[in-house]
Amino acid sequence: MLRYAAALLVCLAALTRLGAQLPDISAKTKDAKAFPGYFHFYWDEKEGKVWLEVDKWDTEFLYVNSLPAGIGSNDIGLDRNQLGNDRIVKFVRSGPKVLLQQPNYSFRAVSDNPDERRSVADAFATSVLWGFKVEAESGGKALIDLTPFLLRDAHGVAVRLRNGRQGNYQLDPNRSAVYMENTKNFPKNSEFEATVTFAGEAQGAWIRSVTPSSDAITVRMHHSFIELPDNNYKSRAYDPRSGYNDLSFADYATPIDQPLIQRLIVRHRLEKRPQSQSSANR
Asked: What is the pLDDT of residue 16?
């Protein structure tokens, strides 16, 4: 009897391991349309899902959200083509999960000493913007369902409406979907867009004046994953006489006789273009 029980346990353990094996990415996406580019992704029209193939681990890139189709009221301030937040983020894997993590660059140690940099990084919180489940994997790559990330209120529309006393609205997933017309891929950036609907009861005249049905507000939100440029950019210290904005951060590797808060000027990366041979011969 004990022999049969032991054999049964071995069989159950083998079946558990077999069931835990993830499918291959090609098998998972065989019926989906492929979009090769910066981050390869697939459009599963039957399920209405965007599958993202993550192959860049712990590699920072720029994430920007925007509002390509807005509400139409200057008083509310949710205008079309309005930029949202821009963040430096990276994908980190932990077992069956993939985390989209934002490092904290407000507190740094600009130093060649790795222990000094690690000490400051551990002293201040980072932000995990979203968590994903690994649905398939192949050769170090992981496939995740990006759809819930795209269909969320990334632009803070509901908060803006509530703070503006226009009504209490909540995102309605049943009236939200991926907008494939503006979902595209390129070698250095991946672009995603979604039609997002907020349901609620209008309380202000502004929102009533610009919506066909004020209990349903539909906008579009865009998400960009962009490759960061190289490290050849040279920063410049901020001078208040310049008339530009500044970027400030706390540098805990600064000598004791120097200011802790470092301020850099926000400017374009302008480089002199090499003179062409034809121009030189004129």
From this structure: 42
Cα(227)–Cα(207) distance, rounded to whole angstroms? 37
Q: Two tokens at 126? A: 């980072």
pTM for this predicted structure: 0.84
Nearest to 148 by CA among 161, 138, 135: 135
d(CA 58, CA 17): 28
pLDDT digits (tens, 9 = 90+) for 58-94: 999 999 999 999 888 888 888 888 898 899 999 999 9
Same domain, 243 and 162: no
What's the pLDDT band for 126 if we cut at 50, 70, 90? very high
> Quick one: which of 98, 232, 210, 88 has its CA closest to 161?
210
Is the same domain home to 218 and 258? no
pLDDT attached to residue 5: 52
Q: Which neighbouring-strand residues pair with 44? A: 49
Q: How many domains does the chain have?
A: 2
The answer to the question of residue 3 being in a domain is: no
Give the domain range for residue 257: 236-269
Asked, for residue 157, whether it belongs to a domain, the answer is yes
Q: Same structural domain for residues 55 and 186?
A: yes
In a domain, 16, yes or no: no
Nearest to 153 by CA among 199, 210, 190: 199
Please give the C-alpha separations between residue 192 and each of 81, 173, 230, in angstroms, as whole numbers: 14, 17, 24
Q: Are 141 and 54 in contact, with CB atoms under 8 Å apart?
A: yes
What's the Rg (C-alpha) of the chain? 25
